[in-house]
Amino acid sequence: MSSQPVAAPAKLDAAVLKIAGVVVLGAIMSILDVTVVSVALPKFQEVFDASYAEVAWTMTGYTLALATVIPLTGWAADRFGTKRLYMTALVLFTIGSVLCATADSISMLIGYRVLQGLGGGMLMPLGMTIMTRAAGPDRIGRLMAVLGIPMLLGPIGGPILGGWLIDVRSWHWIFLINLPVGLIALVYAQIVLPKDNPEPSESFDFVGMLMLSPGLALFLYGVSSLPETGTMSDNKVWLPMLVGGLLVIGFVFYSFKPKHPLLDLRLLRNRNLSVASISLAVFTVAFMGAGLLFPSYFLQVRGESTLDAGLLMAPQGLGAMVTMPIAGMLADKIPVGRTVPFALLFIAAGFFTFTQVGTDTSYWLLCGSLFVMGLGMGGTMMPIMTSALRTLTNHEVARGSTILNILQQIAGSIGSAIMSVILTEHLNDSAVVPGIPGPDGAPLTEAGLAIASVRDPAVAQQIPDPSILERGLQFVADSFGATFMIAFALVLLTLIPAFFLPRKREVSHLLDGEAADRPAAIPLH
């Protein structure tokens, strides 16, 4: 029998907070490692004498590993127990981190990043499962708010930490820092996490695994190749997307046949889970996709260092830290359908400022807008997840959190690719500068020269007409603004499914996870 949630007091007691501490520590390592590595890509190019396309695989390989292992997490949690599996994931991630620091070629680094991803992919869905079971139905909102902390610290702290470690020490330390944190998390987990007895009765869905995991990996490989190629017609993009998409579609039809599918899509008959999943997917495409471009604006248009660009993003996290605990408490008392639409309006208001960015837009205005967006984000993502998981039974939580994490992974990758391609397409429309060929012999554009001059002031001294750089820099700023406009529209689009989130108090089924009569609307067995 799995460990059962018990009726709990309204406030978060010390025992539950200790469990939350373990989960947050693991999630911080997993999420932080994505953004920390993103700022190290130029360093990898220099150290390993590799192209950007090659070093980008240090991120793509990690993402593909996450997508491959997440579908296995629900079954494995039931089969081996959440505590044992969580500690295994921590070991894999920590070993992968240490190996990354020893890599002496780009191919070795990519391989070790895949190992990291296999561990990191299980940490977040397992963490959601452990915390939901520990909290009980009346405190899920507050616990999910705690789990939201690493989601904020990753995008904010990653660039700051990565820039500082590379400047002060070396690139190896962006991986080595996970060793002490991982060891602490392992000891902490062994002491604090409750023992749970696994339920080995379910057979493993090998057919589903052979369709879903490779399908997700191939599809995301194609999506991740889109920014590099800049076109859907490239074989590197459309072919893996097509094959991967067909495998995933095949799995969708197949998954309703076996008694214990790898990913139980029958859970989506639960209206709360399906509406929350749609809302979360649309929101993630918009927010996560554009979120990667905020630091790029500060780097490419304003000429800030990596560390300063990371610091300028801090107001977003501060805003979310203000509202996330409040939103967590409200989610336990007020239906999220009455709060999430208002939070989305805050995000839209902040986004609108970035649709109007120029070359000298006030930092006070930009940081203030990021703070407002953070206020909205703190009241959006975790309440949506709370709504999705609250009406599932104890046994279904692992499967439900797996669905949510897969959707987030796919939506985040699609959002990043879409926003990168849109920005690149806009930049490519810049006027060509006559008589100044690029390193590869191709003509340089005014936008390209402007970005190069921001990175290296010596470039500006070689341009006889300063107006070329002024026009180019303005064009780059306008390109960012146009890309942010697409994200702004997608945030507004999220309001549509958000209005279908529950507006009345829902009865929780978390405590009847082992009841003989489960709700017919969301069968698992």
What report would you give on this structure?
- The protein has 3 domains: 1-200, Up-down Bundle (Growth Hormone, Chain: A), CATH 1.20.1250.20; 205-261; 267-417 and 484-504, MFS general substrate transporter like domains (Growth Hormone, Chain: A), CATH 1.20.1250.
- The protein has 525 residues and is mainly α.
- It has helices at 14-38, 41-48, 52-55, 57-80, 82-102, 106-135, 140-168, 173-176, 178-192, 206-229, 235-254, 271-291, 293-300, 306-312, 314-331, 340-354, 363-378, 381-390, 397-428, 446-455, 457-461, 466-498; strands spanning 432-437, 443-445.
- Strand 1 (432-437) and strand 2 (443-445) form a beta hairpin.
- The chain is 72% helix and 2% strand.
- The radius of gyration is 23 Å and the shape is globular.
- The protein is built from 22 helices and 2 strands.
- The protein has a two-stranded antiparallel ribbon.
- Residues 1-9 and 513-525 have low confidence and may be disordered.
